[in-house]
Amino acid sequence: MSGLKMPEANRDVLSRRAEIVSALRAIVPGEGVIDARTEMRAYETDALTAYRQMPLVVVLPETVEQVSRVLRYCFDNGIKVVPRGAGTSLSGGALPLEDGVLLSMMKFNRVLDIDYSNRAVVTQPGVTNLGITRAVEHEGFYYAPDPSSQIACSIGGNIAENSGGVHSLKYGLTTNNVLGLEMVLITGEVIRLGGKHLDAEGYDMLALMTGSEGLLAVVTEVTVRILQKPETARAVLVGFATSESAGRCVAEIIGAGIIPAGMEMMDRPAIHAAEDFVHAGYPLDAEALLIVELDGPEAEVDHLLGEVAAIARRNGCTSSRTSTSEAERATFWAGRKAAFPAVGRISPDYLCMDGTIPRKALPEVLSRMQDLSKKHGLRVANVFHAGDGNLHPLILYDANKLGELDAAEAFGADILRLCVHVGGVLTGEHGVGVEKRDLMGEMFNEIDLAHQMRVKCAFDDRQLLNPGKVFPELHRCAELGRMHVHAGALPFPDIPRF
Ligand SMILES: Cc1cc2nc3c(=O)[nH]c(=O)nc-3n(C[C@H](O)[C@H](O)[C@H](O)COP(=O)(O)OP(=O)(O)OC[C@H]3O[C@@H](n4cnc5c(N)ncnc54)[C@H](O)[C@@H]3O)c2cc1C
């Protein structure tokens, strides 16, 4: 693995591998335990393919009882556990550990209950995001958060990453659409949070768990809110001669009080890559493209389309095309949703970054990104959720060329520092994982991080669940109680810094 430092492997666990495998086989019989290297190869990385590591063993439980017993066994024997859904994480959240059990939740693949009167679906965590919509669409319902990976990614992974999508601008991220969870703690205890009802007493543990990146518990059941499909949805493609004018148009639309169902921006390299791949009819002469979708009652959509067109004209748009059918609307989105694989066709490798900035900083950040592209000698293609300021710069590199991965990582780190510098945050929707772990110090000071770590310790004081992710260093949980930071001096210098 490049220069990425992970927690040191436990030699005792490595030497007991055969005994551990047979103990796990006793809990999950049949084909639920994979220990052959060739078969484990499929699990050695997630969608952050720059990093790879074979796990100690892969376990695929089918029941909550099996999950509970596996976790209890690992707890009792000091064995690390990395939960995994579909493995589409772009931040390396599901990257295995040499001395850790990789716990795949993909056999939990059933929708358990569809409750239209409560507008809720109860599902197992391995069901895909799109699978939930597929289960209810014949009744005119859908699940709103729609990551571009929705055909593959699991709802359990969505919970762990607090995933979003093009419709999150209006309908919220995963955290705004999850109603309840069943989770298994590292001790094997099963807890339930929330349910079909709207509010719960006490601390908002549901929000704490959503986005916890597999560090606090393993999700075994999810209850989500479903929505009725809007009467009408239409999308408009608007081309601009500069990213600055497209950025101003975005700000003016939101400033006018219009909340589109989605508002996405792509720059010239991304437009060309997507158009070559999907033939969505994107304007190839544009430097920046906005895809704006409006939904609701037909009369309202017609009115808002007129408003958006007027704002786009005021900002000097060079082209504008509104969808006239459902098929055409889907084609407009197909290019955007396939933008990542499309960019994969024009470069052997790419790093997909994920940061969020205040909308008004968009023109400045885009122009600074061009300077960074020259500094690091690598191309960048931009695809982003313009409405909520969530950037996805795709840094193009070739892993086979000496030094290019290091240059891409340095470029990515500079982009994330820039996001923080203009008042934004390190992550939007892809989580911290290993990708942004070492940059957490750019956003949080030692005291902030120590408090976040205390939450981790409350659930997993032996630090067995997904260690090496999110936190840039390990603190022994007992020592956090005595932690005191003086004049920025790093406490406990003997504790591993990754
Ligand atoms: C082409 C492409 C496009 C993408 N587009 C988007 C996008 O538009 N928006 C977006 O938000 N993301 C996007 N992603 C990122 C990714 O799809 C999401 O982060 C997704 O939620 C990951 O789900 P997964 O099932 O693949 O999880 P995995 O990759 O398997 O795991 C992700 C994290 O979740 C944890 N985890 C998984 N299952 C569980 C569980 N049951 N219990 C506890 N922890 C668990 C893992 O430990 C890990 O930390 C994209 C990825 C790709 C490859």
UniProtKB/TrEMBL annotation:
Q: Which residues form a coiled coil?
A: none
Q: What is this protein called?
A: Glycolate oxidase
Task: List the SUPFAM superfamilies hit by this protein, alphabetically.
Answer: FAD-binding/transporter-associated domain-like, FAD-linked oxidases, C-terminal domain
Keyword presence, Flavoprotein: yes
Keyword set for this entry? FAD, Flavoprotein, Oxidoreductase
One Pfam family from the UniProt entry? Answer: FAD-oxidase_C
Q: Name one GO molecular function term.
A: oxidoreductase activity
Cofactor(s) it depends on: FAD
The UniProt record lists the FAD-binding PCMH-type domain at 51-229
* UniProt organism field: Breoghania corrubedonensis
Indicate whether Oxidoreductase appears among the record's keywords. Answer: yes
Q: Which Gene3D superfamilies match?
A: 3.30.465.10, 3.30.70.2740, Vanillyl-alcohol Oxidase, Chain A, domain 4
